[in-house]
Amino acid sequence: MRRFDGKQKRYFSWRQAAHTAYKLYERYDGSAKHYQAVAIIRNKIRGPADAVLASFNTVLNFKAIIARLDFTYADRKQPVYLIEQELSTLGHGSLTVIEFYDKVERKLTLLSNKTLMTYEGYPANSINE
Questions:
Q1: Mean pLDDT, residues 113-124
Q2: β-pair partners for 4
Q3: Dmax (CA) of the chain
Q4: Which among 56, 42, 36 is positioned nearest to 1, based on CA atoms?
Q5: pLDDT in tens, 57-74
Q6: Burial annotation 27-59 (CB, 10 A radius, 16+ → b, else e)
Q7: pTM of whole model > 0.85?
Q8: Distance CA 110, CA 116 (A)
Q9: Which of 26, 27, 57, 110 has its Cβ near the most Cβ atoms within 10 Å?
Q10: Backbone angles phi, psi at 34, to 5 degrees
Q11: Which helix (H) or strand (E) holds 107?
Q12: Which of 122, 125, 113, 102 has its CA nearest to residue 80?
């Protein structure tokens, strides 16, 4: 698992990797293995992201760490329904086919990422499907 240094563009992929790594140890909650796994994930957070966790005195708990980082780094500017509305009204205009495709792809990626950060597990997967 790579480090997260507080760059917003890298947050979603780092978050996905952290969840994947944590799932292996989630069932050992309360054990030394679980504590070590969370400590390793926490130590992968550097720079401004580390300062965010330290300034809010975030406990060594995976859900607490992710919640604080989500609050700081997740794109919360637009709600899901607004992104869906923008996507449904997107027009080709004077764009080339490739430019239009890229624009649609960016909106779909934003929508997918936003959904996964807003809803966990089954609701996120069913909405994205």
A1: 69
A2: 45
A3: 59
A4: 42
A5: 999 999 999 988 988 887
A6: eeeeeeebeebbeebbebbeeebbebbeeeebe
A7: no
A8: 10
A9: 110
A10: -60, -45
A11: helix 97-118
A12: 113
Q: Which residue has the higher pLDDT, 72 or 45?
A: 45
- Is residue 120 scored above 70 in pLDDT? no
User: 117: how many CB neighbours lie within 10 A of its CB?
Assistant: 20
Q: Is residue 25's pLDDT more than 90?
A: yes
* Token pair belonging to 58: 């975030």
Instruction: Phi first, then psi: give them for residue 4, nearest 5 degrees.
Output: -115, 120
- Given a contact cutoff of 8 angstroms between Cβ atoms, the answer to whether 89 and 101 are in contact is no
What's the rounded Cα separation, in Å, for the pair 62 and 18?
A: 9
Q: Dihedral sign for Cα 13, 15, 17, 19, please.
A: negative
* Joined tokens for residue 31: 């054990």
> What residue has token string 């929508």?
111
